[in-house]
Amino acid sequence: MKTWILLFATCLFVSCSPQKLLKRGNPEKAYTIALKQLHKEKAVAKNEEILNQSLQKLIANQSIKKNGLIQKGKLDALEEALLINGTLQNYIKDAVGFLSENYEDEINFFDEEERWLTKKCADLAFHEGSWKWEKAQSNNDKRLAQAAYRNFLKANDYQYENIKQLLNVLEQSFEFGQIIYGIDPIEYDASFSKMKESNDQFLRIIPLNQIEESACDCIVSINYDSPHTSDNTIVTSNDYEKEIEDGYDIEIVEECQTNSNGEQVIVEVEKEVTTYKTIKATVRVTEITRSTRSSAGIKVVRKTENCKLKNQSWCDSVEDQIRDVDVCGDKRAITGCVPSDSGIMLDSRATMESNVYGNLQFSVHNYLMRSK
Asked: Nearest-CA neighbor of 309 among 293, 317, 298, 294?
């Protein structure tokens, strides 16, 4: 057994050795393992050699990929190239102290390239955002304004040079991109005011006494039907009957016995005889099921093409049940299992109706927040 474990461990070590990994075309993993071994001061000379070879291979492979992305000239490609640049810089920095060559030229090149890529990403993000912003305004397209806003945010992340111009279009595209649902003040819920902060920065639900209908993208009417609660009672009764021992009686019986002369004679003797009696029991089980159901719906009037809401309806129900078990008579007569008493009270009608309303309200709110 020990031999098999040793063989397995040897094979595992060989298959995972950085030298084997490098030969198999996996310089990244070879680099990682060699660096880990060097930090543990294991096989220093050998691992330093593998680390340097792996790093050179990584830089060569990743630079080819990075240069191909740069040639595409698109924002997403340049962003990926920027990530590769950062990864290569980290490879060199993490290996400092174990490198046989001076990578100062590479470090300077990657540092300069990072600044160039960052500026290029900032300019492209702003350019894309500006194009979308201009088109959004001409077509009254709020979703395109939102996309422009996200581009401007990205330009800000990449430290776009004209910060004054950037902040101006950030504010304008953000305000323009607001999709507004107007709702009857009676149907307005205080939780709507938190949606902008907690779920979607471009969605605003405003009571119609605070905004003109003409400023809304959707006019939403919410209707909650009155809940219906009913109780259903089922009573089952089972009768049981059983004979059990009930002491004994003395009876005179005749027996054939042999007397002292060896003769067979009939004699009367007293004998105990078991007596029985019949016992009865009734098990009455009362099950009460209380159910509450209701429905809700919204009707939508589209005021602009930015409104993507549709008429929708929901149903919900809740149920509660109790069991009352009553045993009359002698319990010893009962055979089999008797249902247990639930020992609790039914939820009140008010509680169940409140739960149904809460579920429906959640469905309505969730739909409004997601369907923009």
From this structure: 298
Structural tokens at position 324: 């009352």
- Does residue 363 share a domain with residue 245? yes
Q: Is residue 186 part of a domain?
A: no
266 domain residue, yes or no:
no
Number of residues that this document lists for the chain: 372
pTM (predicted TM-score): 0.72
Token look-up 């590769």 returns 84
- Burial-class residue 329 by CB neighbours within 10 Å (0-12, 13-18, 19+): middle
Beta pairing, strands 312-329 & 264-302: antiparallel
Judged by DSSP in three states, 267 sits in strand
Q: pLDDT at position 196, please?
A: 52
Structural contact between residues 181 and 301, judged by C-beta atoms closer than 8 angstroms: no
Q: Which domain holds residue 161?
A: 121-176
Q: Is 246 exposed, middle or buried (0-12, 13-18, 19+ CB in 10 A)?
A: exposed
